[in-house]
């Protein structure tokens, strides 16, 4: 299978007057056609910056892409001309934004907004585009006759359906879903995720699902990339990540999620905060918060190493968490 | 599995509700309803419509008889009736040359109304173009354009209008231009502020992410969202423009007598104010009422378009 997306050593900085914000640092990712990749990380880890960079939506200045390549099949997105990238946007790669409340234009009817992207890319006339727009609405479970209404007449979940209809209107190869369910309540989340999965299976779209919900990732993704301070700290097949967790940060994330089958009094969040992206530590970015950090971790930045067939991790001591008494247990003992 | 999906979807549709549950009012209908709740605004609108009908009627009469009636009723002097006080035959009285003031004002309506509207259209087009370019591109372009606007704002309104008017030859379009241009900075500032708040909104980025080019983003996504304050400003500024035209005519730079423009009538009548009050008061009152009606209408439009701004 061919790689629909291959990001190599991507580095994106924002040069502000009060310092350089190192949003994405030496980030590498790749995904096969037709698969789903989950990108997980805390707020501010650079997930959205990464997604926007794929479509070259980063405002420059202050943003600047310091290094790296983003291959869409065999084309480097970062080397495309403006008109080439406009052809890619919406047609080959499209994006779903986080908040459906603000990502629809309040003064245009819903079907007009879907028709706009169809008109742009499919070279159809207005009437044909509107026809197709209504089909798309039906596909996401909204009666076509409601297409002539305005976004404020829709509920949050329905707005997100419309956003998805816009994103899927031109049958893109790759869909970037930037926290598509964060702004929705849980029942609507399930509906929206179901629908996305259904559309993905029907149209063979590859999907990058950016989220901080590990449950959503486990349910929907084939591969997972754990992002911390702008770099991928652990990447692998979804079961590998959950069953043979190799990076202390991933362990921390998993421990922060309540489990149904265990009776725990308190959750175990990771101590401390993510480093300030204007002043990243010299060594491993996670070292200040890592319970296993050594002197080497403080002074030397780790390289990515393979720990399995389809599993890599950026740590000096991959798998250290499984060798020792697990983080959770040790703390629980201490607390008792 | 496929069956359960379908069932889930149907279940979801049930929670969303059937289309008939949502048969609500559109944005336009709601705005209209809010506007008509405001009695003062409706009165203002009626008066403005009345004036529009008068000006269209005077055009039609001129077209039909080739201006004969106009010459006979508004220009032909009738000195025995000079400064005649209001009476049944001449409800508004007669002016210093014995011409009927009511008829002259009827023919004069169109100058105030059409020039007021034309000058605001000029100001809107120029101001919105400058403002949206400055707001969208920002940086140096913004600095350059807005400093020019600041310079224009620093010159008193009437002075600037006089300067433009005396630089250009005196015809109707130039008069509209000289009243319109000093209004440009107002529109540019409103448009710039509006564009700057809209351009960072998510839906603009979403439009860019779906492959729209810059022109399409400005015209399709940003400008339609900026209209409300501009429309409000338009409806309020027509009143100001009418005042400006009357003012220019009064000092002799605008429409020249014997053309029955209200400001010009006021100007030529001012010499007789001691002998015949009605010759000045009636055209003056007409200007006051028109401006008042336009302001009430404009306020109504503002309240209707921007419900958040209500006290």
Supply the key terms:
heterodimer; A: 336 residues; alpha/beta; 8-stranded mixed sheet; 4-stranded antiparallel sheet; disordered C terminus; B: 311 residues
Describe this structure in words.
- The complex is a heterodimer of chains A (336) and B (311).
- In chain A, β1 and β2 form a beta hairpin.
- Chain A is built from twelve helices and twelve strands.
- Mean pLDDT of chain A is 82; it is low at 324-336.
- In chain A, strands 6-7-8-3-9-10-12-11 form an eight-stranded mixed beta sheet, sandwiched between helices. A four-stranded antiparallel beta sheet of chain A has the order 2-1-4-5, covered by helices on one side.
- Chain A has helices spanning 47-54, 82-88, 110-122, 126-139, 156-168, 186-203, 214-220, 238-243, 248-255, 295-299, 320-323, 327-335; strands at residues 3-16, 19-32, 36-40, 63-72, 75-76, 93-96, 174-178, 206-211, 223-228, 231-237, 304-308, 311-314.
- Chain A is α/β, with parallel strands linked by helices.
- In chain A, α3 (110-122) packs across α4 (126-139), α3 packs parallel to α5 and α4 packs across α5 (156-168).
- Chain B is an all-alpha fold and 311 residues long.
- Chain B is 75% helix and 0% strand.
- Chain B contains 13 helices and no strands.
- The longest helix of chain B has 37 residues, at 101-137.
- Chain B starts with a helix and ends in a 6-residue tail after the last helix.
- At the A-B interface, α2, α3, α5 and α6 of A face α1, α10 and α11 of B.
């Amino acid at each position: 299978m061919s790689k629909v997306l291959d990001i190599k050593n991507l580095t994106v900085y924002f040069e502000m007057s009060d310092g350089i914000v190192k949003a994405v640092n030496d980030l590498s990712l790749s995904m096969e056609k037709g698969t789903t990749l989950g990108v997980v990380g805390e707020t501010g880890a650079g997930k959205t910056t990464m997604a926007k960079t794929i479509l070259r939506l980063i405002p420059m200045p202050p943003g600047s892409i310091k290094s790296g390549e983003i291959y869409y099949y065999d084309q480097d997105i970062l080397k495309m001309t403006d008109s080439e990238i406009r052809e890619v946007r919406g047609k080959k790669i499209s994006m779903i934004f986080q908040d459906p409340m603000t990502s629809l234009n309040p003064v245009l009817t819903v079907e007009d907004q879907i028709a706009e992207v169809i008109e742009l890319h499919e070279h159809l006339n207005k009437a044909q585009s509107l026809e197709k727009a209504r089909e798309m609405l039906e596909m996401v479970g909204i009666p076509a006759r409601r297409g002539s209404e305005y976004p404020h007449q829709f509920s949050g979940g329905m707005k997100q359906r419309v956003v998805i209809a816009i994103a899927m209107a031109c049958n893109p190869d790759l869909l970037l879903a930037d926290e598509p369910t964060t702004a929705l309540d849980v029942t609507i989340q399930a509906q929206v995720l179901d629908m996305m999965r259904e559309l993905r299976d029907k149209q063979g779209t590859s999907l990058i699902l950016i989220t901080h919900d590990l449950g959503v990732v486990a349910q929907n993704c084939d591969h997972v990339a754990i992002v911390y301070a702008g770099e991928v700290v652990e990447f692998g097949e979804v079961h590998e990540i959950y069953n043979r967790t190799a990076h202390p940060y991933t362990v921390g994330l998993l421990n922060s999620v309540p489990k149904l089958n265990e009776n725990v009094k308190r959750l175990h969040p990771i101590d401390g905060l993510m480093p300030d992206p204007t002043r990243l530590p010299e060594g491993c970015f996670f070292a200040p918060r890592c319970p296993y950090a050594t002197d080497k971790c403080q002074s030397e930045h780790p390289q990515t190493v393979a720990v399995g067939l389809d599993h890599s991790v950026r740590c000096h001591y991959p798998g250290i968490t499984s060798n020792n008494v697990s983080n959770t247990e040790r703390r629980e003992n201490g607390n008792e | 599995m496929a069956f359960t999906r379908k069932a889930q979807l149907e279940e979801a549709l049930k929670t969303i509700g059937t289309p008939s549950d949502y048969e609500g009012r559109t944005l336009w209908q709601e705005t209209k309803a809010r506007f008509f709740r405001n009695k003062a605004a409706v009165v203002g609108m009626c008066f403005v419509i009345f004036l529009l009908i008068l000006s269209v009627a005077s055009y039609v009469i001129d077209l039909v008889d080739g201006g004969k009636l106009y010459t006979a009723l508004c220009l032909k002097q009738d000195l025995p009736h000079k400064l005649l006080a209001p009476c049944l035959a001449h409800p508004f009285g007669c002016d210093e040359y014995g011409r009927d003031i009511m008829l002259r004002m009827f023919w004069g309506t169109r100058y105030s109304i059409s020039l007021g509207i034309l000058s605001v259209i000029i100001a809107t087009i120029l101001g919105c173009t400058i403002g949206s370019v400055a707001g969208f591109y920002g940086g140096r372009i913004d600095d350059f354009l807005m400093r020019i606007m600041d310079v224009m704002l620093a010159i008193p309104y009437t002075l600037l209008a006089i300067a433009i008017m005396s630089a250009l030859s005196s015809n109707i379009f130039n008069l509209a231009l000289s009243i319109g241009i000093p209004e440009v900075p107002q529109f540019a500032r409103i448009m710039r502020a509006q564009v700057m708040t809209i351009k960072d909104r998510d839906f603009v980025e979403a439009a860019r992410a779906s492959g729209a080019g810059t022109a399409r983003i400005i015209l399709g996504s940003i400008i339609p969202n900026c209209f409300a304050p501009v429309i409000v400003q338009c409806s309020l500024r027509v009143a100001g423009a009418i005042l400006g035209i009357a003012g220019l005519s009064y000092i002799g730079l605008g429409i020249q007598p014997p053309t029955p423009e209200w400001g010009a009538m006021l100007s030529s009548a001012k010499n007789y104010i001691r002998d015949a009050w009605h010759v000045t008061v009636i055209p003056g009152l007409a200007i006051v009422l028109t401006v008042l009606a336009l302001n009430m209408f404009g306020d109504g439009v503002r309240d209707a378009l921007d419900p958040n701004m209500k006290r």
